[in-house]
Amino acid sequence: MSIIGESLCNWMCRYEPQSVSIMHSDMINWVGNAYVGHELPPEIKSRLGYPEINRLNLPINKITNYYGETTYQTSIESPPIPSVITFDIKSLGSSREGLHVDTSIADFAPTADPMEGNIFGGNLSIKDRRYTADRDYIPLKEVKSDTELWRGMSGEEWVDIVKRGIICSKGEYNIGDMQKGATYFSEDARQALNYAAGFAPWTLMPTWTKPAVVVRIKRPIDKDLITAMKPEVGIKGCIPISSIGAVYEVRLVSERPGYLDVSVDKYTKSVSIGSRGSPSQSYAIREVPRCEWDSFIKS
Q1: 0.85 exceeded by the pTM?
Q2: What value does the CA radius of gyration of the chain take, rounded to a whole number of Å?
Q3: 236 φ, ψ to 5°?
Q4: What is the mean pLDDT of the chain?
Q5: Domain range holding 209?
Q6: Among candidates 251, 161, 284, 254, which has minimal Cα distance to 215?
Q7: CA gap 230, 53 in Å, rounded
Q8: pLDDT for position 120
Q9: Integer distance in angstroms from the first to the last C-alpha of the chain?
Q10: Is residue 98 part of a domain?
Q11: What are the two backbone dihedrals, phi and then psi, of residue 164, each rounded to the nearest 5 degrees?
Q12: ∠225-229-235 over CA atoms, to 5°?
């Protein structure tokens, strides 16, 4: 069997729309044309309770109908761009899953089973010399400081910082009264990187067009600090963008899609989330020159 990479667009579009046997015809009318291989209808997607959900694609893999409920088993994927190629990876057991690779920044050399020809692994290497694989990027690896702080964030937060000229958390993910009104940084650069990418909320993980960002600032001496949860440090109020000493782009290099089960009640039309697994991603990092701060992420 010939092993070639397919474009992500071709991979997503190769499924022909399938007729789905729906026990409740009014359900399919309410959600529109829901087919295997198509995106989860916006009527459902908008009711999942996540404002950032439109950053992601949720293509339907399977539709299951019960007496009062329809369940859509979907993938969680970054919206495709032309430079992304999909490799069909043989997983443990008999299932397959796609490995999406941005070929503008990295090469993937697949390793195949000589008997069956299935790809079961491979070597991912960064070819864009501006970037370094995150595991090898020294400035954000094992760096801890008493004089500097780091903050990890989504690409959207960075665009907002550039527009407003200040770093000021909106507090959506702050915990408890103590964290209200504070913007949190870390004395540990690696922790900030993890918050920006690997440990980010699943709807705010990096996508092909929205990398994560880590910023470094000098530890302020004229601000009210919250240090009860070291190495995290909360800064009361806002910090001017002029305080930033360095900006690091955390760019998505490869992704294995996650999964999300969404159920819709026939009678109440209520939408609920069942099983979920976040995408598995790998990243490359570079320090962004100051002249690119307002342009390397498009708003």
Answers
A1: no
A2: 22
A3: -70, 135
A4: 83
A5: 132-251+283-292
A6: 161
A7: 31
A8: 63
A9: 43
A10: no
A11: -90, -20
A12: 25
